[in-house]
Amino acid sequence: MNLITLDEFIARTEHDLPDATGELSGLLRDIGLASKIVNRDLSKAGLVDAILGEANEINVQGEDVKKLDIIANNVLKKCLQNSGECCGIASEEEPDFVAFENRKNAKYVVLFDPLDGSSNIDVIAPVGTIFSVFKRVSPIGELCTIDDFLQPGYKQAAAGYVIYGSSTMLVYTTGDGVNGFTLEPSIGEFCLSHPAIKTPEMAKTYSMNQGNYNSFSDKVKNFVDYCQDNTDKKAFSLRYIGSMVADFHRDLLKGGIYIYPSTKDAPKGKLRLMYECNPMAFIQEQAGGKATNGKERILDIIPTELHQRTTVYIGSTKLVDMLEE
Ligand code: AHM
Ligand code: MG
């Protein structure tokens, strides 16, 4: 058996880069560690409510039962602060970014959605963690600033996600292709299982909350109508879990398109540029796919606020082009 662990893979890739200092590698290893802890806590999720007590309540042992989003947020924050390579974080679960007082000399900031699709936990469907890494632009030695976080997606140094499903898998890119690592539970290591992922150029699968059809633009309605047109048996398959990481992961491996357009309730789209769309767009492009907001490339959007939302069409190149046409 020739297992390549995540740590070993990171070390090998770092070795191939003459300018690598090891800092980004250290950061990725720490994110790997955090996701193993989240994975462990998630496996007990079914016990919360039924056995341990309801989230947000005091359980029978007199302990505070926290929601898993908050647990995952705290785990990531702590692992990144311990890491020494991260000077601050921004999270979907925090109102503002957090600058690490004791890490002023670190070079990177990390933005994350600690537990995306968390409403799926109640029904034991897959959820995920999404992360995005930027090199800071503020001077090393000082506290990080908002400018370190509000950078366009094309400047990401790394991005990735972890899917907690029937297996747990970590997928990431540093701008040199996309690799996937499956958690081997018996040894507690992420092992390289999906090297150099390339997404199919075309597929007949689309993923979206089609219940919002009546509030879609004509462009999106036309695309949906096209997907449903069964003339010559060419209708597409609709696959939607309602957990972006899970829907994206399927599209990445098998081809397809994930769409979250503007709706009546979410006129600017529902998903967050910094925590969800930028990292997924970086991965998708590195795998040969495409990601736009309908007007421009997701990675070119200049962010103005941390929790900014955007519409997103992401997946196989031909499908994204088709929708845009
Ligand atoms: P969350 O970050 O609050 O979990 O919301 C994001 C999730 C995505 O994972 C998913 O694709 C989408 O919201 C589903 O939204 P909807 O229920 O409107 O289809
Ligand atoms: Mg989310």
Task: Describe the 3D structure.
With 325 residues, the chain is an alpha+beta fold. It has helices at residues 6-16, 23-42, 68-83, 146-149, 218-228, 244-254, 273-286, 317-324; strands spanning 86-91, 98-99, 108-116, 127-135, 158-164, 168-173, 178-184, 189-194, 205-207, 237-238, 257-260, 271-272, 290-292, 309-310, 312-315. It folds into two domains: 6-194, Fructose-1,6-Bisphosphatase, subunit A, domain 1 (Fructose-1,6-Bisphosphatase, Chain A, domain 1, 2-Layer Sandwich), CATH 3.30.540; 205-324, 3-Layer(aba) Sandwich (D-Maltodextrin-Binding Protein, domain 2). Strands 2-1-3-4-5-6-7-8 form an eight-stranded mixed sheet, sandwiched between helices. It has a five-stranded mixed sheet with strand order 10-9-11-15-13, with helices on both faces. Helix 1 runs antiparallel to helix 2 and helix 2 packs antiparallel against helix 3 (68-83). The radius of gyration is 20 Å and the shape is globular. The N and C termini lie far apart (48 Å). 46% of the residues are buried. The structure holds 2,5-anhydro-1,6-di-O-phosphono-D-mannitol (AHM) and magnesium ion. Magnesium ion binds at residues 92, 113, 116, 276. Residues 92, 113, 116, 276 line the site of magnesium ion.
